[in-house]
Amino acid sequence: MNLRLHNSLTRRLEDFVPQNPQRVTMYVCGPTVYNYIHVGNARPAVVFGLLARLLRRRYSEVVYARNITDVDDKINAAAKEAGTGIEAITSRFARAYHEDMARLGVDVPDIVPHATEHIAEIIGMCESLIASGHAYAAEGHVLFEIATFPEYGQLSGRSAEDMLAGARVEVAPYKRSPGDFVLWKPSSDDLPGWDSPWGRGRPGWHIECSAMAATHLGETIDIHAGGNDLMFPHHENEVAQSTCAHGGKLFARYWLHNGMLTFAGRKMSKSLGNVMILHELLERYPAEVLRFLLLRAHYRQPLEWSEDTLAQARATLDGWYRVLLDHADVPVEGDELQVPEEIEQALCDDLNTPAAFAVLAGLADQLRQADDSQARRQRKAALLGAGLLLGLLQDNPEQWFQQTSAGSEIDPAWVDELLAQRVAARAARDFARADEIRKTLSERGIVIEDGATGTRWRVEAASAVVP
Ligand SMILES: [Zn+2]
């Protein structure tokens, strides 16, 4: 079974063939840490994190780097507003990002390079681009001269005019051409800066990814991925810098881009004022619901994010957890969990998560219909194995139904105490008291079900979302 990926560079589905099967390399553009991220920025980390998992099943060594941009004008502005240095801002929000990713079930990449820890490599790359005639220094800046790279625009498929319009390029007296972009810029005393051959300054954004990818993964990498909003100018500029700094060597062999989130059909963006902050969503929804919704559409498609799609995601997971709850008595050991071949097959088809979830739903149905103990055990192991690769369904099913949100407000001990009182009331034939307890629980959205093995309780999905 071949892994096929849609390569933005060729605009085709291609078999993935790494340059060195002993060491597969992948770079994903990470966040600029000046605030909590909006949920759309979690999509590349979740989607390409899953790709890294899939690659690790197929190759002995995968080196996956996802950077942290910790020097940027937005960070400078946030630090100024807070009256602190940039380090206080970047360390705080990098930590929050890592915590939020962990809650989403995103594996930690092998390498998490920070831009500020690669200033020497960035300066070195600027120098080599100047030496090879692809960049020039002017008034404390270093600029990449796009006229020296005829392939400029190939990745994003843009014409020269489109690029000028799309980049809202700044016309500046120190530029030879308005499309030339900044590799290095001067810093005034109140801004973070490093000594360089061009005076005290700081890197432009694009150069950091080129420098960090080369440092950790090599001059030609297998996969470069990120949101499709980064294709131009960021990725286009990365291609120009890296290719020219490395004597024309191909920079990235496969380019992967994820689609954007929409809200009520409109792009989720700061300028439209409809962004949702991941950190806040994690307070209101189980992290697994967010992860599932982020994976539910094919990664190249837009993803509609709304209260409705969140409720649907929750309901689907509830259905699967319900089946697991009904088979909670079936023992399955961790080493019995095998990823079913159909799941891997779906993911190998350009990370087709909708197809993988269709398979998962089928596995849940099969488990639901299983009637002998061997079938129940095998099918439960298959469902859990599929969930393991996808980062879902690993919760204790009983606890799943008892959570209101990640920051649960209902104390299970309180529920258990009331249920014990209810058992006692019923034993004493005090049915008024028993009903009263049921009502108290119901007012908190807790549904109780009396069964042969005792009383189960769960939080109703509709009330599971804390407003
Ligand atoms: Zn980047």
From the alpha carbons, calculate the radius of gyration and give it in angstroms: 26 Å
N-end to C-end Cα span = 46 Å
Number of DSSP strands? 15
Cofactors, ions and other ligands in the entry: zinc ion
Q: Bin the strand percentage.
A: 5-15%
Overall, the morphology is elongated
The chain-level structural class is alpha/beta
The largest pleated sheet is described as: 4 strands, parallel
Share of residues in helices: 40-55%
Strand arrangement, largest sheet? 4-3-9-10
Stretches where pLDDT is under 50 for at least 5 consecutive residues are 462-467
Mean pLDDT: 93
Q: Can you count the helices?
A: 17
Question: How would you describe this structure to a colleague?
Answer:
- This protein is an alpha/beta fold and about 475 residues long.
- The protein is built from 17 helices and 15 strands.
- The chain has helices spanning about 40-60, 75-80, 85-105, 120-130, 160-165, 205-215, 230-245, 280-285, 285-295, 305-325, 340-350, 355-370, 375-390, 395-400, 410-425, 430-445, 460-465; strands at about 5, 10-15, 25-30, 60-65, 135-140, 140-145, 180-185, 200-205, 220-225, 250-260, 260-265, 265, 305, 445-450, 455-460.
- Helix 1 links the parallel strand 3 and strand 4 (about 60-65).
- Helix 4 crosses helix 6 (about 205-215), helix 6 crosses helix 7 (about 230-245) and helix 15 (about 410-425) packs antiparallel against helix 16.
- The two termini are about 45 Å apart.
- The relative contact order is 0.11.
- Bound molecules: zinc ion.
